[in-house]
Specification:
The protein is of the alpha/beta class. It has two domains: about 50-260, Vaccinia Virus protein VP39 (Rossmann fold), CATH 3.40.50.150; about 280-320. It has nine helices and ten strands. The chain has helices at about 60-75, 80-90, 110-115, 130-140, 180-190, 215-220, 280-285, 295-305, 310-320; strands at about 20, 25, 35, 95-100, 120-125, 150-155, 165-175, 195-205, 240-245, 250-260. Strands 6-5-4-7-8-10-9 form a seven-stranded mixed sheet. Strands 1-2-3 form a three-stranded antiparallel sheet, with no helix packed on it. Helix 8 (about 295-305) packs across helix 9. The longest helix is centred in the first third of the chain and has 15 residues, at about 60-75. The chain starts with 19 loop residues before the first strand and ends with a helix.
């Protein structure tokens, strides 16, 4: 049975608006309502209009399955092996709670269920309602007695309906290249995963050494998404333990990192030892107007004559000029 206490309102700010169930959907304290897809317990927070693209049509899952068969035949790999390798990188433990963004028709769900060893929760979301509902149809009943609970929501990965630090890990494979705002999508995964929890992201994107090859040109001509680079610049500046690798003949990038919202442990106040002196902070925030180069050289020489760093000499001279020595 699906629990709804985990969801919060993406319209009101997730930290302050837990949702409550009513007969036909979920409602937040501020009056925002989110209906269930008719005949299901799947809340609809956001979804693309029907027919907006190949993922938002009635046969979307079948179209996607056909594309996957082409991928594995082309790159001569097996789907089970790839998905097991990728999910192993998450490092799931029995009882964990994991988020899958852009879950599509749920092709990764059987492997995630297996990785949780009989206990845990999987939350699968996608903005393409038709794809997501195919996943519900395929897997919800199949794993009902597995000990692992499956939860589905049609929602926007850039505005996830979950509170901060709710998940032990997050996973995404295939689709992040199409996010309208990749940086925001990754930031949301980082927000909803506990400090130190693993996040694994992958999609089409040639390794740099293939970009200028004939094979690379052929792949990009076939599908422009292969020209995408791994979006490392989209990672939060607080990300830890970042790793980049490639799968499927080095044509799909995989990014792994540990979630964190804490500043990096960099002490910008450690004094430099040497002629220049100062610290990272003083060298960055303490920059001043330029002076005559000849005068600058005299100041540097005088600092050396006195056995002082340049920063220490300048600071002492400036304090003296202000009567604060």
């Amino acid at each position: 049975m699906t629990s709804y206490s985990c969801y919060c309102c993406p319209e009101s700010g997730c930290a302050h608006a837990p949702l409550k169930r009513e007969a036909d959907g979920l409602v937040c304290p501020n009056g925002h309502r989110f209906a269930f897809e008719p005949g299901t317990d799947v809340p609809l927070f956001a979804s693309e209009p029907e027919g907006a693209n190949e993922y938002a049509q009635a046969n979307a899952a079948e179209v996607h399955d056909n594309a996957l068969r082409w991928v594995f035949a082309t790159f001569q790999d097996d789907e089970q092996g790839l998905r097991e390798r990728l999910i192993a990188r998450i490092g799931l433990k029995k009882g964990d709670r994991v988020l899958v963004t852009g879950a599509g028709a749920g092709n990764d769900l059987p492997y995630l269920v297996s990785a949780l060893s009989g206990a845990g929760d999987i939350y699968a979301q996608d903005i393409a309602k038709e794809m997501l509902l195919a996943g519900v149809s395929r897997y919800q009943a199949e794993f009902a007695s597995s000990g692992v609970s499956l939860h589905f929501s049609a929602s926007d990965a850039s505005h996830l309906p979950f509170e901060d630090g709710f998940f032990d890990a997050a996973y995404h494979f295939g689709g992040i290249n199409l996010f309208p705002d990749i940086t925001q999508g990754i930031a949301e995964m980082n927000r909803v995963v506990k400090q130190g929890g693993n996040i694994v992201i992958g999609d089409e994107g040639l390794a740099p050494w293939l970009v200028d090859t004939e094979l690379g040109s052929m792949l990009v001509t076939n599908n422009a998404l292969y020209a995408r680079s791994a979006p490392l610049s989209a990672l939060p500046p607080t990300a830890r333990a970042v790793k980049l690798s490639w799968e499927l003949s080095n044509c799909f990038y995989v990014i792994e990192f540990q979630a964190s919202t804490e500043p990096l442990p960099v002490n910008i106040d450690v004094p430099h030892v040497g002629k220049r002196g100062g610290t990272i902070r003083s060298r960055y925030f303490g920059r001043m107007e330029g002076v005559d180069p000849a005068l600058r050289d005299q100041i540097y020489q005088e600092a050396e004559n006195r056995g002082m760093s340049r920063v220490a000499f300048l600071e002492s001279a400036l304090r003296a000029s202000l009567g604060k020595d």
